[in-house]
Amino acid sequence: MDIYIKNMVCNRCKLNVAGIMEKAGYPDAEIKLGKVSVKDEIPDDTLRSIDKQLNSVGFEIIGDAKTILIEEIKKLTIEYVYDLITETNENFSEFLVSRLNRDYGYLSKLFSSVEGTTIEKHLINLKIERVKEMLVYNQETLSEIAYKMGYSSVAHLSGQFRKITGFTPSYFKKLGEEKRKSIDEV
């Protein structure tokens, strides 16, 4: 049985959900971002209890196909930004289409109608949050960061960074961590 969960965006989220599943009697549940898999069906009363516990920590069980697809787009966007940009030759739209086996136009319209923003803007916001993280915690140059994040140039990265944050990357680095958002706030 698969349970799809909204707002799971990081490893800490997975640990929270794992703890809830263990308390509910499912210590061997397979936990992935946005999804929990168990071998057997979960009784309705237990599922309601799990849902209540998930809600108390900011998660939500989702059941309709469109919401599940939106959460999958978000999960894949995080995976692309944090793990795959420099490892794949695919641009982001090709990446989504290949993983979801859906037309990009459909995915884009669905995402925009539900989230109130485009997939592209969501991707850019995640990339900028990742750049903020790299500026604050890493010793890489802006040129290295631009390359790792798939920007064509430092100027392109700097322009997009300034447009989103209102700061230049170098000024932001001086400000430090206080201006960063948690990934689940993006």
Any overview of this molecule?
The model has no long low-confidence stretch (mean pLDDT 87). The chain is globular. Strand 2 (30-32) and strand 3 (35-37) form a beta hairpin. The protein is built from 9 helices and 4 strands; from the N terminus they run E-H-E-E-H-E-H-H-H-H-H-H-H. Helix 3 (65-84) packs across helix 4, helix 3 (65-84) packs across helix 5 and helix 3 (65-84) runs parallel beside helix 6 (119-137). The longest helix has 20 residues, at 65-84. It folds into 3 domains: 2-62, 2-Layer Sandwich (Alpha-Beta Plaits), CATH 3.30.70.100; 65-117, no CATH class; 122-185, Orthogonal Bundle (Arc Repressor Mutant, subunit A). Helices cover 60% and strands 8% of the residues. The chain is of the alpha+beta class and 186 residues long.
